[in-house]
Design brief:
By secondary structure, the chain is mainly alpha-helical. It is built from 12 helices and 2 strands.
Length: 303
Amino acid sequence: MINLLSRALLMSTPLLFGAIAEVFAERAGVMITAIEGIFLLGALGGFVGAYLSGNLYLGLLLAIFTGMAVAAVYGWITVYLKQHQIVTGTAISILAAGLSSYFMRVFFGTPILPLTVEPLKAIPLPLLSQIPVLGPIFFTQNILTYAIYGIVPLSWFILYRTSLGLTIRSAGENPEAVDVAGIKVDRIRFAMVLLAGAMGGIAGAFYSIGFLGMFTTNIIGGRGWIAFAICFLGNWNPLGVLVGTLVFGLAEALAIYMQSSGTMLLPNELFIALPYILTIVLTISRKSFNVPAKLGIPYRKEN
């Protein structure tokens, strides 16, 4: 049970990065529907950087830049050119799938054996990791897990207790008021898209260099869309997102555990599909959403 809960916390890490990224962007009025593509190219950038340099942190840095580059393209098209966010994001995600395969061939050709790197190691925190039960679960994780669980309360504080957070939320609720205050709405929205790209790049890199230590073109497997759904299920609140992410992390950890244990009480495919089934069930069962008023609507300044 301790191993399962520790793995649940680990597997919730990339989903939480992606979901918090969505919260900031969607609070400002922009849906990051390119999140699956950002995850995928972030995973590629992280692996390429880590494999070629031999340094995981340089790989992580390249993943951030890659995620921001994809987000910048998406933001330019949707925020400044005012194009449809869902259509644009879907197109970029499809393009990302092709680009990831192409660049793997460019950098590495067609290797006979899978290329691997040593993934991020768990860092036991002094004293805290020795606490019975809680220590192995909460205080023996890798640096990305520690980072995101510190980012969650910080995100809540920024959004709900600072003038910057008020501006971000107003850009998604009442952009006209933001414009009247002399703040450029498009600039705020584009900045949040870039932030989401950086965090999405980290989320993707988690799978390639923080967990598996390798890259394949199907490494993300729809988890970007799960992070997208968690933002909705968490009502665009970092604390709500945290709860939802832990549920999904537990579902994925259980799926991995059942596959590795060889237990055949139920078909193995059912456990693989468990996080995706959970996404559908929770979305259907949710009765109401506190949707930002101008979510997905480009801001056009009246003359």
